[in-house]
UniProtKB/TrEMBL annotation:
<keyword id="KW-0378">Hydrolase</keyword>
<protein>
    <submittedName>
        <fullName>Alpha/Beta hydrolase protein</fullName>
    </submittedName>
</protein>
<comment type="similarity">
    <text>Belongs to the AB hydrolase superfamily.</text>
</comment>
<dbReference type="InterPro" id="IPR000073">
    <property type="entry name" value="AB_hydrolase_1"/>
</dbReference>
<dbReference type="GO" id="GO:0016787">
    <property type="term" value="F:hydrolase activity"/>
</dbReference>
<dbReference type="InterPro" id="IPR029058">
    <property type="entry name" value="AB_hydrolase_fold"/>
</dbReference>
<feature type="domain" description="AB hydrolase-1">
    <location>
        <begin position="304"/>
        <end position="532"/>
    </location>
</feature>
<dbReference type="Pfam" id="PF12697">
    <property type="entry name" value="Abhydrolase_6"/>
</dbReference>
Length: 538
């Protein structure tokens, strides 16, 4: 049956340093690890007590089927704790309980918390009531449950702001038999009528008096407010920024790591529906409500292609949070291999935003295939984006481009060096002659980046640039956009192409900025000049 993992916690150490450590560990490691098992845990929430009682903290996770909690996929999480988790949890008084769901009633206004934005969800009220049953009373569990379902919860539903009530049994049937308790969880809006007339009426009925006198031994009641909604992607920067350098964390497989301190950053991953692993980096302003700028990189590069620009951005705009991610095809792709499409690439970005619970981007900046992805994202998900900057791309492909990609695939799969042979040719084609002669360190850096690309990833992701056409679709775009291009891209041909289609974006068209002495990746070749081109629009 469905149920819940219900965990109360009270840190044994009260200093601010440990509280930051506790928060960062729980929100970047412990909770997201469970949310990356959606077949077991579809959601997870943190609450803080509002009744002055301890334990102060509560975390609850809905469980799709309690039988999962007996299987290694879950039990191994606890058996294989990281050293950091073991050290942190050793300083916290923890009480874990398994609940079996018996009944649930929802208001017509109820919306699952994980479907709300953080701003909408935070502050919701949870009332947790636990009753223990009198020993030796036959049918007590059934009678108490019947009263809750048929009288008490219907009366609670009349309280202004009531959203949902659920009835649970603990211990879970998977734990065997012992003293049974009934736990009810009642959810309310931030503004509600608790302690009002409707609430008082629900606490004073003949049936309630009969049930309590006959069946209930003890009752406890706690009140909490919601302050954090977990996602599968670690995103906690605020507490991370309060920690010393030695608090840096890295998982054994190196897929997740953190950088504490004033330049706090989280490196982690999201997983697409088809199993694609999408690495990302989150940094910049540490507030969870800070406006976020995301970057979509070009084919054959990783998110480090934006390194120098991000340094400039963070210094010039400390109000912004910065998100970078690796485009599909940079790393290994899931089997069976299928050609990528621009729709898939736009969906990959939405996967990352959903994992990080980012409801809307302040801006999306993309280049080359990332530029096409940026326009497609603006067209497909206009409600998730305030503005975009698309660089060095075309709104439609050509047969000649498709043939060129096939030739490059043949080189990448070739026996004599493969993609390492493709890398220098690609960078020389991308970069302005000035970059190749006067900025050789940048050219070498990019060549090494390209050479590390997964070959199958390249083969199938570059097909997103075959046979696409957004010429007509872009006319209906409702998101403001800016186009940027290096003056030497395609020896100037791309400047003419982008100048030709800029007017077709939405009703007002897009501006076009040209970065001098730059080629296909102006943000990597000339980051300062690129920033000057976009800063006003951003």
């Amino acid at each position: 049956m469905a149920g819940m993992l219900y965990v109360t916690m009270e840190p044994c150490v009260s200093d601010e340093g440990f509280l930051s450590q506790f928060t960062e560990w729980y929100q970047n490691e412990h909770g997201p690890t469970r949310l990356r098992l959606p077949q077991i845990f579809p959601n997870g929430f943190r609450y803080r007590a509002t009744d002055g009682q301890k334990p102060t903290f509560l975390a609850i996770y809905d469980v799709t089927d309690m039988a999962w909690l007996e299987k290694p996929i879950y039990t191994d999480l606890r058996a294989n704790r990281s050293p950091r988790e073991a050290q942190t949890i050793g300083q916290v008084d923890v009480n874990r309980k398994f609940f079996d769901l018996l009944a649930s009633k929802e208001s017509s206004e109820f919306v699952p918390i994980d479907s709300l934005t953080d701003a909408e969800a935070e502050g919701q009220v949870l009332v947790s009531v636990e009753v223990s049953l009198k020993a030796g009373v036959e049918g007590a569990e059934k009678e108490v449950t019947k009263w809750y379902v048929e009288e008490h919860i219907p009366m609670l539903s009349k309280i202004p702001g009531w959203l949902r009530s659920r009835v649970f049994r603990t211990p879970s049937v998977i734990e065997g038999s012992s003293e049974v308790k009934i736990v009810t969880l009642h959810e309310y809006k931030k503004e509600n009528g608790l302690d009002g007339a409707e609430h008082k009426a629900s606490m004073d009925t003949p049936w309630r008096t009969e049930v309590f006198n006959k069946c209930i031994d003890q009752k406890s009641r706690r009140t909490y407010e919601l302050f954090y909604v977990f996602g599968p992607g670690p995103r906690e920067l605020a507490s991370l920024s309060q920690l010393p350098a030695e608090a840096a964390f890295e998982t054994a497989d190196k897929t997740i790591s953190t950088t504490p301190g004033k330049d706090a950053a989280v490196n982690a991953f999201a997983v697409a529906k088809d199993g694609l692993v999408i690495p990302y980096r989150l940094e910049g302003n540490t507030s969870p409500s800070a406006p976020t700028v995301a970057f979509s990189n070009s084919l054959l590069t990783d998110y480090h292609m934006w390194d120098e620009l991000v340094k400039i951005l963070k210094a010039a705009r400390p109000d912004l949070r910065v998100l970078r991610y690796d485009t599909r095809g940079r790393h290994e792709i899931p089997k069976p291999f299928v050609p990528a499409t621009l729709d898939m690439l736009a969906d990959d970005l939405k996967t990352v935003l959903d994992a990080l619970r980012i409801p809307k981007l302040h801006a999306l900046i993309g280049v080359s295939m990332g530029g096409a992805t940026t326009l497609k994202f603006a067209l497909k998900y206009p409600g998730l984006l305030e503005k975009f900057i698309a660089c060095d791309f075309n709104v439609a492909s050509s047969d000649a481009n498709t043939a060129a990609w096939k030739d490059r695939i043949a080189v990448a799969e070739g026996p004599d060096g493969g993609i390492k042979n493709l890398a220098p040719v690609t960078v020389e084609r991308w970069f302005h002659p000035h970059t190749m002669t006067e900025k050789k360190d940048i050219a070498q850096w990019m060549t090494e980046m390209v050479a590390r690309n997964n070959v199958q990833g390249f083969k199938y992701s570059c097909q997103a640039l075959w046979g696409y056409n957004m010429r007509e679709e872009m006319k209906g775009c409702t998101v403001p956009g800016l186009f940027v291009v290096g003056d030497g891209d395609g020896k100037g041909a791309l400047v003419k192409a982008m100048d030709g289609f800029k007017a077709n974006l939405g009703e007002k068209g897009a501006g076009l900025k040209i970065v001098s002495q730059a080629g296909h990746l102006p943000m990597s070749e000339s980051p300062k000049e690129f920033w000057e081109a976009i800063q006003e629009f951003l």
